[in-house]
């Protein structure tokens, strides 16, 4: 179906053509502004911080389609992200072939727990708004969380997404997992479906010096915090980072990634929840030592039960999220009073 197209991985020198494709498909409105900065994009490709599969017209060298994989800097996983095809080439399985090329790259480079996020429209949206969920369900991926209000929509509203993940190869051994008791039933159900067996254990004090990475994503009006290594100093550093992002007048949401195999994970989870963060997702191998928990904070609440969700597990996650969002908000208000 794609004989006239060349399918290949991108090189740094493809960056300007990638930017041209993004403009042709989405104009200037795509939230990830890196895709409009060819020099920075070329550096990201050269350093394998982004891996692109391209559909190229050999006669002109034009990039007619692209799909991106963002390998995690912390573990054996990666995010299947942006996917675009020129309108004239849609419905020809180009997107499928580009994604398969990225999955092959991930397998060859030891990236096991691939995941991606697909739109979860609000109730009353056109039926076509759920096409990405149907496509993902057909691929047998597993819902592992929901990102509420993640991206700015075309009319200025915040759009929410279901996070889906590929199950791990069936050779995984149980991993120690430190998580507050209230989250364990749902987390175990998700991780079991991802072929990531875990053994829950009470938390213990962290040791050594921790690492906390914090970055602001301008186009998304969000912050991402990640703690690849928990240390004695992590609680104090996390409090400072949370204060900083919650004092940011332009921020709409924030995410916090915690490595559940490490001592101190439950403590940091409780600390963040005391400041308004709530359950978002669990994934299998975002960190070198195993599964990770993602917590989320919102400047303005989003009701997850108003989203259209095809998968029963996704609806269960939304119900749990609604309860947790209400619980942590009540706790924050009680402390403030």
Describe the overall structure.
The chain has 337 residues and is an alpha+beta fold. The protein has 2 domains: 1-111, Aminopeptidase, CATH 3.40.630.30; 175-336, Aminopeptidase, CATH 3.40.630. It is 31% helix and 31% strand. Strands 1-2-3-4-5-7-6 form a 7-stranded mixed β-sheet. A 5-stranded mixed β-sheet has the order 10-11-12-14-13. The protein has a two-stranded parallel ribbon with strand order 8-9. β11 (222-229), α6 and β12 form a beta-alpha-beta unit. α1 (15-26) packs across α2 and α6 (234-246) runs parallel beside α7 (265-273). The longest helix is centred in the C-terminal third of the chain and has 25 residues, at 312-336. It is globular, with a radius of gyration of 20 Å.
Task: Compose a concise summary of this entry.
This protein is an alpha+beta fold. Helix content is 31%, strand content 31%.
Globally, the shape reads globular
Number of domain modules: 2
Structural class: alpha+beta
Q: What is the number of helical segments per DSSP (H or I, 4+ residues)? A: 8
Order of helices and strands: EHHEEEHEHEEEHEEEHEHEEH
Proportion of β residues?
Answer: 25-35%
Radius of gyration, taken over Cα atoms and rounded to an integer in Å: 20 Å
Could you name the ranges where pLDDT drops below 50 across 5 or more consecutive residues? Answer: none
* Total strands: 14
End-to-end separation:
63 Å
Helix content: 25-40%
Indicate the mean pLDDT. 92
**Biggest beta-sheet profile:** 7 strands, mixed
CATH-defined fold name of the largest domain: Aminopeptidase
CATH architecture of the largest domain: 3-Layer(aba) Sandwich
